[in-house]
Amino acid sequence: MGHLSTHVLDTAHGCPAAGMQVTLQRAQADGSFTTVKALTLNADGRADGGPLLDAGAMQAGRWRLVFAVAAYFRGRGVDLPEPPFVDVVNLDFGIADAQGHYHVPLLVTPWGYSTYRGS
Questions:
Q1: Contact 56, 36 (CB under 8 A)
Q2: 3-state DSSP call for residue 80?
Q3: 5 exposed, middle or buried (CB, 10 Å; 0-12, 13-18, 19+)?
């Protein structure tokens, strides 16, 4: 059974990115993106209620996760320049197998980020 999940860790503070706003979008044939879901990460830096997409909603194609990084760090009291170095992270990825498990972690600071396909 396929599903999509994410987990965001604030590596500047050594904790989950609780309260970060995340938007899941699906690419359309014309290259635009449509919002599928918007959420706030829980205390563990994950989506409440399970995966972002469950087996019934998984579809092969191009997807985007939008992470509101600067807003999150400002909410934690971090003094960021204007404009911030890392503002919004648009993470484009593909789902080739709708039956697969896709986990998209984000490790983030106000100055950089990294991601990978997790397990």
A1: no
A2: coil
A3: middle
